[in-house]
Structures are given as C-alpha cells and as structure tokens.
Amino acid sequence: MNLFSYDSPFSRFLYFVADIVTLHFLWILYSLPIITIGASTTALYYSCMKRIRTGEGYVTQNFRKSFRQNFKQSTILWIVLVLVGLVFSIDIRFSVALGNTMGRIMLVSCSVFLIPFVLLALYIFPVQAKFENNLFNNVKNALLMSIRHFFCSLLLLVIYLTIILLGISFPPFIGLFLCCGIGLTGYLTSNIFIYIFRKYIPDELEQDLDASGKTFY
C-alpha cells in the first residue's frame, strides 16, 4: 500500500492529527466569549464521539452543528456550574479561614456536596451532546451515570489530573497542549463516554459499524 494513499495507516494518522488540532482551535475560538464554554464543550464531545464511532471526518461541520443545536441548554448549564463552583470556592475559603471546629464542620459538609458536583461536571456536557432531553433529565441522568459507572468516573479524573500535572511538571508538554491539548483530551475521554453510553443504546454499535462500512469479526 502506498504510504500516502488515503487508506494507509500514515494518512489516517495525519487525518487524525489534523482533526484533533482543528477541534482544539475550534473550541478555543468558540469559547472566547467565556459564556459559550459550555456550548463549545458540548460541540467538542459531539464531534469527537461522532468521529470515533463512525470514522466520519467532518469535524468542523459537526462542531458547528452541535454548537447551534445545544447553545441554549449548554450555556444555562455552564452558567449554573460556574455559579455553584463559586459558592463552593467561597465556602471552602471561609471554612479554612475560620480555623476552628465550626470551620472544619463546614469544610466536611462542603466536601460531601462537592463530590457529586465534580462528577456532574464531568458528565453533563457529554450527556448533553449525546441525548436530546430537557435540562432536568440530562442533569439527573449525568449524575446517575457518574455514580453507576464510578470506576469510569475515576478514570476520567485520572486523565484530567494527569494532563494537569504534566502541564505543571513537564514544560515540553505545555507546547503540545497549546497545539492540540483540548482536542486530544476530548478525544481520549470521548472513548470512555462512548463505552458508557452504549450500555443505554444497545443497537448503536451495529449502527455505527454499518455507517462506517465495517463488520464484526
């Protein structure tokens, strides 16, 4: 097989890199107003999961399509998450500043509620990208999935923390992250979400194989 033919492993790798870089910069561009981060994150996951599932390479079109369709709900979710996160941040700072028994009680209480908040934040935008539902049901389903698939949730946390630690302790990684970090992170975590979501959509794998022209072996 020719090294530069469309179906060669080398060409497929180049297309993959190009898509990851494209999604990285699309996310940054569409997130610049800050308030649109939720919608752009939803679009990122939609595009990544679509590419992984069917091999479809139209990442720009998929990103824009999802951004438009999910803009309202994703923006509301993002604003709520930011506001709740700020409340947690203020409460934790205040608890630490007290430095007494009451402060420790408040800190433990915050921690108890912080765990489901973090789990929800991990799942809510992929769920929004995948399922057409109202806000309440998407939030409920995201939280239930995060608890039911707790080991997958831990794996997601490990991936995010590893990327953060590499950025802090390994300077060369910063250059890689600036070039494609968001797209690569979205792609890595999307594989986990596809595995989870297929438990709720049992026919999806067969449909994806048909769409991509692949078959079971």
Features:
217 residues; mainly alpha; 0% strand
Low-confidence stretches at least 5 residues in length (pLDDT < 50)?
none
Let me know the number of strands: 0
Total of DSSP H or I helical runs spanning 4+ residues: 8
First-to-last CA distance: 23 Å
Percent helix = over 70%
| Proportion of strand residues | under 5%
The mean pLDDT is 87
The whole-angstrom Rg is 19 Å
Helix-strand category: mainly alpha
3D shape: globular
Along the chain, the helix and strand elements come as HHHHHHHH
- Main beta sheet, described? none
Structure description:
By secondary structure, the chain is mainly α. 83% of the residues lie in helices and 0% in strands. The protein has 8 helices and no strands. It has helices at 9-31, 37-54, 59-98, 101-130, 135-148, 150-169, 171-197, 204-212. Helix 1 (9-31) packs across helix 7 and helix 2 crosses helix 4. The protein is globular and about 70 Å long. The model has no long low-confidence stretch (mean pLDDT 87).
Blueprint (SSEs and pairs):
Blueprint (H helix, E strand, L loop, with lengths): L8 H23 L5 H18 L4 H40 L2 H30 L4 H14 L1 H20 L1 H27 L6 H9 L5
Short synopsis of the structure:
This protein is mainly alpha-helical and 217 residues long. It is 83% helix and 0% strand.
